[in-house]
Design brief:
14 helices, alpha/beta, elongated, disordered N terminus, about 550 residues, seven-stranded mixed sheet, Glutamyl-tRNA Synthetase, domain 3, Glutamine--tRNA ligase, Ribosomal Protein L25, Chain P, Rossmann-like_a/b/a_fold, about 25% strand, ligase
Length: about 550
């Protein structure tokens, strides 16, 4: 086996084997089939990258198919959000299709199955059906309605379609085997009555196909060659194939279902039902809250398409489920933003610094590099004056030899500016420092080429000129859940692990170059982390979201 073959994941190996056994590469066709009942999350991102990535690798079409078979939960808002997310990740679909496109054909095939005595209308309650279905170790028992005549089934099914019955009064079931070892094969439901308006077909239908009936048949109608889904659908594969057996024609390609494992992300949940609870119960502000594991939440927080694609590529495709530490996702966004995000100065916990020997009323504009990773270095101007803000933690009145920031009697460099020395402090009645007084060396300006500018000092701190500073709201986010696997204990409601300190809002002071920043603009606040402009920003009222810190501090906290 070649090195190239060894590097293939098991999904690619399946495709390569099919090609080797005679499947024409022109027949390859993939799909991504979300249900539009919520926003996509980071787990979906892996599936998107898998299917669309295979499309790119094999130059094959990929359909975006909406599994819109339950009008009780689906909305156009979710359809639009899903399309936006897939496009934002950088992928183009060959066809935008819907399970609802096939409702008439699915209905006609169901009629065909009734006529072949392979489907029947059951009129039991859901509770009766659950009891009658048996257990994994005990066979089920036949429904008392299982032997209805073909004519009676056809009449009832037609009346179900026409909206003559209330929800829950009748269902259509496939007639397979109530003693089958796979419980999904024990006369599975094909249709149920839902008397609600569909976001596309409106009130045309009162019966809606179940996932197992609609999915494989939709794959077949679209000539999908490989239908990849997550591991929980492995038991469904037998039913997928049984349903296809009822309708396939020899001259058409038959879809193949294969499964891969979910790769769950620590400190998050990725169940759409649970994400919906977080929204509806007010634990977050919406589906795109930057604390959410949704793609739209990650985008709003400042994640880039490249970082998410790189994350999906790094975790790869596997056959066994495991929990991926969220620090890997954070590493991917740091790596990407380090290359593209401009460096700027901002102070989030300010204390006033007065340079006592700097001329009153004087100001100067200093050169500051935008990003040291750039191939061709670019610069911006930042204003400097007598009164500055620095971070409170960058000063200690008394410090040991390992503290390399500002303290009394020692020198430190102000980034892009001068070397200063701490001289004295002013405190309020409670003993809190309100002002730090320092002196500067006028010959030490960065980049000036003087001997003083080349003098080595152990620390460099950032700052913002008070007369020029822009005030902004800074939203600092932490893990939404305190437990790495909030979904792991089925005896405990996952909401018990919601982190009460997942959002802190502070007032920050920024250099004036950020004044005209637009929604989505991304920056590195030097020495603080990566931040992006939030959509709630308005002219004169900027809001920044913290995307991620410069290093993984959470791992250190976890170890304590």
């Amino acid at each position: 086996m070649s090195t190239k073959e060894k590097s293939l994941n098991f999904i690619e190996q399946i495709i390569e084997e099919d090609l080797k056994n005679g499947l024409s590469q022109e027949k390859l066709h993939f799909r991504f089939p979300p249900e539009p009942n919520g926003y996509l999350h980071i787990g979906h991102a892996s599936s998107i990258c898998l299917n669309f990535g295979l499309g790119l690798k094999y130059n094959a079409p990929v359909n975006l198919r909406f599994d819109d078979t339950n009008p009780s939960k689906e909305e156009q808002e979710f359809v639009d959000a899903i399309k936006n997310d897939v496009s934002w990740l950088g992928y183009e679909w060959a066809n935008e299709v819907y399970a609802s496109d096939y409702f008439q054909q699915l209905y006609e095939w169901a009629i065909q199955m009734i006529k072949s005595d392979k489907a029947y209308v059951d009129s039991q309650t859901s509770e009766e059906i659950a009891i009658q279905k048996g257990t994994p170790t005990a066979p089920g028992t036949n429904s008392p309605y299982r032997n209805r005549t073909v004519e009676e089934n056809l009449e009832l099914f037609e009346r179900m379609k026409n909206g003559e019955f209330e929800e829950g009064t009748h269902i259509l079931r496939a007639k397979i085997d109530m003693a089958h070892k796979n419980m999904l094969m024990r006369d599975p439901i094909m249709y149920r009555i839902i008397n609600k308006e569909h976001h596309r077909t409106k009130n045309q239908w009162h019966i809606y196909p179940m996932y197992d009936w609609a999915h494989g048949e939709s794959d077949y109608l679209e000539s999908i060659s490989h239908s990849f889904c997550t591991l929980e659908f492995l038991p469904h594969r037998e039913l997928y194939d049984w349903f296809l057996d009822q309708i396939v024609e020899n001259d058409k390609i038959r879809p193949k279902q294969r499964e891969f494992a979910r790769r769950n992300l620590s400190h998050t949940v990725v169940s759409k039902r649970k994400l919906a609870r977080l929204v509806s119960e007010g634990h977050v502000t919406g589906w795109d809250d930057p604390r959410m594991s949704t793609i739209s939440g990650l985008r709003r927080r400042g994640y880039t398409p490249a970082s998410i694609r790189n994350y999906a590529d790094t975790i790869g495709i596997a056959k066994r489920e495991n929990l991926i530490d969220v620090s890997l996702l954070e590493f991917c966004i740091r790596e990407d933003l380090n290359k593209v995000a401009p460096r700027v100065m901002a102070v989030l916990d300010p204390v006033k610094l007065i340079i006592t020997n700097y001329p009153q009323g004087q100001q100067e504009w200093l050169d500051a590099e935008n990003n040291p990773e750039e191939e061709i270095m670019t610069y911006r101007k930042v204003p400097f004056s007598k009164e500055l803000y620095i971070e409170r933690e960058d000063f200690k009145e008394e410090a040991n030899s390992k503290f390399f920031r500002l303290t009394l009697g020692k020198e430190v460099r102000l980034k892009n500016a001068y070397i200063i020395k701490g001289e004295s402090v002013i405190k309020d009645e409670q003993g809190n420092i309100t002002e730090i007084h320092a002196t500067y060396d006028p010959e030490s300006r960065s980049g000036s080429g003087t001997e003083a500018s080349k003098r080595k000092v152990k620390g460099t701190i950032h700052w913002v000129s008070i007369p020029h500073a822009i005030e902004a709201e800074i939203r600092i986010y932490d893990r939404l859940f305190t437990d790495e696997n909030p979904d792991g204990n089925k005896e405990v409601d996952f909401l018990e692990f919601v982190n009460p300190a997942s959002l802190e809002i502070v007032k920050g002071y920024l250099e004036p170059s950020l004044k005209n920043s637009q929604e989505g603009d991304k920056f590195q606040f030097q020495r603080l982390g990566y931040f992006c402009v939030d959509k709630d920003s308005r002219e004169g009222a900027l809001i920044f979201n913290k995307t991620v810190g410069l290093r993984d501090t959470w791992a250190k906290i976890d170890q304590k």
